[in-house]
Amino acid sequence: MTININDVNERPIITSPTGLSVAEDMTVVHVVGTVTATDPDAGQEKIFTLETSTNDWFRVNTDGTIVVNSALDFEAYDPATFSMTVKVMDNGYPAMSMTTAAFTIAVTNVNEAPEVTPGQQFDIDENSASVALLVLADDQDAGDLAALTYELDPASSIFKFETSSSNRLVLQDGIDVNERLNFEDTPSITVYAKVTDDESLSSSAVGILISLNNKNDQPALATATRYVKEDAGQGYSVGGVLVATDDDLNFASNPCNSANWGVLSYAITGGNDGDAFEIVTAVGTNTGQISCKQDAEIRNVVTDQRDWYLTIVVSDASGGSDSLSSTAVTVHVQLTEVNDPPVPVCTAMDLNENTLRVIQQLVP
């Protein structure tokens, strides 16, 4: 008796891979590992398919290779370990399959460059004596953020970070803020910040815009000397005009928040003995003209006085609530001699009639 044993298709046997890991900076289609299988039926083709997965970061090709399917991010999961199950099927008749037990893939961390937050803008008042601006930066790698160091690249002559480990942007020591933070000269300043992590990986330098708010500027006047003839009378102009400076005078290129910031007025606040002088502000030119005030020759206003030391103050904003005044300065007004015409002096005397003689020489 003969017994024939008929062959039947048997299930392939799949082997789960172990110890799979991949760095987070690996690109798509990078091969992570391979699922393998054996089949008692020689010569049959084995086809692998993904059954379940934590996410879509990985895929399984039909030949069993496990590859990166999309961008990886270690920081997005804690822990960054992902489970998968894979099925294998042969091409026998009938086709047979076997599903593996779950296996895992660990995504490992790679240090990534920190970043300065783009598009940061700050507004500060011009002439500010103190500035503290907090610059934002980020690092995807947990634990590195607190270790960032900050710098300006290129360095700024106006601003600096308070310390290398601080994100506080402050003023350089000893700068003249009235000159360097002047809205009328430079309404905005751009500095470029970058950060470096504790593994010496640096960001690119990112521009930070610092805009200056226009504020009323204090006028200024220099000391001066003016001369006036001693016989000058009421309304006589004493030398040339006084010219104060004020950054808000330039309306065309830098209009003021209040137009009156650039309107100046001059005043005598001291030293005007005998109320001898007055000062008039010339409308439109913002200059001040000193002139004689009294209805008398200036030399006769105060007996024997030849010099006045006038205290002059210049104010802006037409004396409004936001008006600023200059530091008081001294203008020295000095009388100058004039050549007066001679005055004959004649002495009375008695003279007999019919007498011929020189009476007396007239003395000027």
List keywords for this structure.
1% helix, Immunoglobulin-like, 364 residues, 5-stranded mixed beta sheet, 1 helix, 26 strands, rod-shaped, single chain, mainly beta
Structure in words:
This protein is mainly β and 364 residues long. The chain has 3 domains: 13-108, Cadherins (Immunoglobulin-like); 115-213, Cadherins (Immunoglobulin-like), CATH 2.60.40.60; 224-336, Immunoglobulin-like. It has one helix spanning 177-180, and strands at 13-15, 20-23, 31-34, 36-38, 46-53, 58-60, 65-68, 81-90, 97-99, 103-108, 115-116, 121-125, 133-134, 137-138, 149-152, 159-161, 168-171, 188-196, 206-213, 224-229, 242-243, 265-270, 277-282, 287-292, 307-315, 329-336. Strands 2, 5, 8, 9 and 10 form a 5-stranded mixed sheet that branches. Strands 12-19-18-15 form a 4-stranded mixed sheet, with no helix packed on it. The longest helix is centred in the middle third of the chain and has 4 residues, at 177-180. It is rod-shaped and about 205 Å long. The termini are far apart.
> How far from one another are the termini?
179 Å
The value of Rg in angstroms is 47 Å
- Fraction in beta strands: 35-45%
The helix-and-strand class reads mainly beta
**Shape summary:** rod-shaped
